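Ornithine cyclodeaminase family protein (Aliisedimentitalea scapharcae), 335 aa
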Amino acid sequence: MAKMEIEYLGKPEIDRLALTNDEILGAVEQGLIAAGRGHTVIEPRMHLTPDPAFNGHFNVLRGYVEPLGYAGVKVVGDFVDNYKRGLPSELALLNLFCPRTGAPLAVIDAAGITDMRTGALTALGAKWLGPQNPRVLGHLGARGTSYWNVRLLDHLFDFDEIRVHSRRPESRNAFGERLSADLGKKVVVTEDWESCLSGADIMIEATRLNQPTPLFDRSWVKKGSFVVPYGTMSALPLDFVDGFDKFVMDDLGQMRAGHLGALRPHIDAGKINEDSFYAEIGEIACGAKPGRESDDETILFWHRGMSTGDIALGARILDKARDMGIVQNLLYRDE
């Protein structure tokens, strides 16, 4: 058998790539279009909790994107207390494989991929489902995915007002300062949930709750707005889902698996089911179903994270790194 090598990219290499907003959005959109056309395989994420005392768990995401020629598995740790150790809450690796032989092809640091593809999915959801000309963004949460939510949303819409909030003052203040510097505009750091969200055109909930807690009041959602809740632990009261015109999911298989997620209590209580959902986001991306159809539609988009987005963005990163000559080759087998 010939020598086999694995391409490797760590965070230093990915940082050197300096992916643009449009490169990130374009890669994730490509994965969504493939999903909408039935050219992917998406396995619902799995969870591994090594010890409840560690206040964290692993997510395992698996998928295949036929147009890109890759199968992939991403393992991401989600450990809430990592900030106490000076670490990001989410650390991850993406493994790309040949779908025909099973041969491992690449190993890529995926903490940044997770953040970027999550932000891109939020922004693309707003592109197709949000109000036509949103002026106010309200964003809860300050973790890594939050930065890319705000950055990519503002790239598409250039908001007049951006409001942010998170539980810890030092976290939300630093988050607001970073966004203001990078976006070149004022970012309002609020002291509570209501002043952050109430009346916003686009409302994002990406919090880090330790247990389901109904903190997001339905009365703050104005008609015609676009709402994206994706905290691991639900922040939504059971009546939150009342009155929405459309529910959109990233992938319906994701709602059938696991015990976590923003709408899990509502599913368990029978408030919503698969018939409640209007479409998967890939169906909208590829044009199989329309997105927003009127200004007064109030739309909720629940995404739990699609392996196809990880694979599509990983493939784009790998291509650019090859062009720049910064891929490391690791010996896998030589026999």
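The longest strand covers residues 56-65. The two ends are 6 Å apart (CA to CA). ok done for today
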